[in-house]
User: What shape does this take?
Amino acid sequence: GENVEQHPSTLSVQEGDSAVIKCTYSDSASNYFPWYKQELGKGPQLIIDIRSNVGEKKDQRIAVTLNKTAKHFSLHITETQPEDSAVYFCAASKGNTPLVFGKGTRLSVIA
Amino acid sequence: NAGVTQTPKFRVLKTGQSMTLLCAQDMNHEYMYWYRQDPGMGLRLIHYSVGEGTTAKGEVPDGYNVSRLKKQNFLLGLESAAPSQTSVYFCASSSIRGAEAFFGQGTRLTVV
Assistant: This one.
């Protein structure tokens, strides 16, 4: 089955700096790659997603890139703010299977 | 909009006791999922359902049972709780499999 590896497990950045979280997947048939943000005491919430027919997608300060050949995708957060502090999860699916999640990255934005 | 609602939010069980976690969604989604979240382990799929009356095993199904008698509800049962089942449980739903999943607020379960 699909296996998703996520790095780093923890990340600290200064406010205003950029943060990058990377994930790799094992199943070349996977075609949907979402990113979820989980704030303390809450359930994960989708922040951005990308499908395999697209290489990059942006939404304000957040962007996701996908390299199908290398089977990896990344989350980029620019101009980080304290409210970006949370746990971020990547996931992968091949459309006919449930999402498989990475183990998460705890992002701390230091003011 | 309520979205996905989980009941209860917190529970403490003694080893060997049983309980049922309830998940309800009001988005008319076909697919529903139960995940557990443990420190450093991410979200692991326990069971899922592709429609009313159907269930399927996920990555870590042992010790759990599920039922989907109504489209909007997905129940997770623990017949004989064990300390290894101490975790935060999340229910999610999606309109199609492998698309955006909407999560509930979670149930924190402690088995002593």
